[in-house]
Amino acid sequence: MKSLRTIFFLGAIACIAAGPCLAALPGDVDPFIGTDNGGNLVPGPQVPFGFAHPSPDTARQDTSGYISSEPIIGFSQTHVSGTGGGSKYGNFRITPQVGPPAPEDLASPKAEEAAAPGYYSVQLTRPGVRAELTATRLVAVHRYTFPATTQAQLLLDLAAVANPGSPARQTPVECTARFVGPNRLEGTGNFIGGWNPSPYTLHFALEFSQPFTAHGVWRGKQLYADQTLVNAERTAAGVWATFDTAAGGPVIEVKVGLSFVSPAQARANLEHETAGANFDTIRGRAEALWQEALAKITVEGGTPEERRMFHTALYRVHSMPHDLTGENAWWDSPEPHYEDFYCLWDTFRCLHPLLTLIAPGRQRDMVRSLVDTYRHTGWMPDARIAGANGMIQGGSNADVLVADALVKGLDGIDYATAYAAMRKNAEVESSRPLYEGRELRDYLRLGYVSLDTPRSASRTVDYSYNDFCLALVAQRLGHAADAARYFARASNWTNLWDAETHSIRPRHANGRWMENYSPTANYSTMSARFAWWGAPYYEGTGYQYATSVPQDPYALVSRLGGDAPFAEWLDVFFGLKPGAASLDPKGLYTHDNEPDLLAAYLYLYAGRPERTQALVRRILAGEYHPGRGGLPGNDDGGAMSSWYVWNAAGLYPNAGQPLYYIVSPIFTRTTIDLGGGRVFVIAAAQASAENKFIQDATLNGQPLQRAWLTHAEITAGGTLTLRLGAQPSAWGQSERPPVFAPESQRGAGNIPLK
Length: 754
Prior knowledge:
CATH architecture of the largest domain: Up-down Bundle
Number of domains: 2
Largest sheet: 9 strands, antiparallel
Oligomer: single chain
Mean pLDDT: 93
Number of helices: 19
CATH topology of the largest domain: Glycosyl hydrolase family fold
């Protein structure tokens, strides 16, 4: 195999010869970053937001099905990206073997494992087979190079699922496959369990590049040679095909079309996306799609490691949700259709705002899909996987995506229907609040969710921001009375503000505070007192959730007594000052979880932007690094990667609002392609590890004294020039970020504190 550098060089030469073309694919994207240490990513290829995602599965697995130190057992066609919790997918695993078929003896050591956008390869040393993978949106494409033998085998495990030994495991219910030609087979798998326990049905159509010389099936532990059909319920099942690579040549290509609709539709997808194309052609198409996606943001300067992290993070941003337009097996609709929002609680903060900026058409279609799901199911989901809603960690966060789209001017969305969906979330008690809608009995009566309900405190905080987003949409659509009502409800978080502990503290329905309470305790990990999903906070503490007030940080400043005590409270939180957080040098902040991701930017509301600049640089340098364990925990469907992209470039969004914070970039120049010939440039010629503080700034040549920008300022195009230095400055202290709620409706609770 040529080196990647050679491939990129030859590609550039080809572009020059052919005339204008896309920029070269960044050679430092490393799909192995985040595959270990709980990152739960896989190294296999996909196209941007493509559903087909072939990747290696290993003998011992995490959520994704892959642990890099383990031997490989085969290559399944479907995966999720960087998720925690229960697994999903990992279907229809193909394994090459040499010798008699042995479906219970699949594991092989590996060598020469390599990956790039749209491509993966590995040498399986036990059978002596080279495996290569690429993909289209709905077709997984494999290429196997065998030694010369009359017993080259390709086994297809119909019952395969990712991480089958996990507590929330998937289970095959019924699997069927049939040989339908000398080089073709098709089939169906029915599965249940995983992150959402609902069943799903997936179909495939498979085509080999050469005819097989023998074939058979297995059911349980029994092999049946020459049979053309297998059907099995709740047991291992699969098929094998034998090839003569001595006579027919060493290379066998395999195309696996996927569909939620039917095997016939899977076959149609295979024909539509790959007919007449070989592996190299399909790989070239995948690389072209990645060139287009990754060219949206280009960077200069920084270290090679920082550029590798940046390009890889930008690559991961384009993984989920999956574009299944044309594959809606659940209702008839002409609308775009996306599945595997996994989950919006993780991704609304920075993944979807990034797509709004660099891929607005894609983000528009995702919101349209969420709205269409409401039309046909009655609810706009917070988590949706494989045709069913998944478990809701917090609020109804599709509300944030609708608000983000509306205030940033995304057109083509039925905002009237979206608003009806948001109002239902806010007013109608759900009969299945773990999967759709909200727990509203206490919230509407008391202004908070009481301790009688699981995740009561974190739900109150999340619902308050959902209500704020609903108010913004109501305001923009001309529903003045509704806007006033929901702006008032957006301050419901204050009903759990405890002035004694300076935290969000759970309360009983009668108003009493939670007893034996600690603002630094993560109750979801205290199994003796609470189950994970039954704790008063979802994956966080009262101190952490107190930082999650994006609608009105000034109300938080006020409750803590003003700028100086508020900054001191944050200093303790980040371990910059002795206090409750001082046992950990990082303080109470945990970057591998989302509720406190806003915390570093809250200093701007107290006139201390230099604190934000220093902390963001600390997080970038300390939590991310090249290597297979290089992410701070689960990538959460691109949430952690998108955070890196934003902050390395020098910006961070307040999701649902047309507001971006300015931070200290690590690159000397970042160029964001906004489409239509518009670009936004962030220039910081002095950027370095030492120069982390902004000394002064200009926007399009005019002095800029504030550490924030509006969406309109960015999308108009232009240049933000930042002069960086090694020492803090007074820049950005005088003009603080705006709040979008009316003055009369900021920071007021619905009930008096007791």
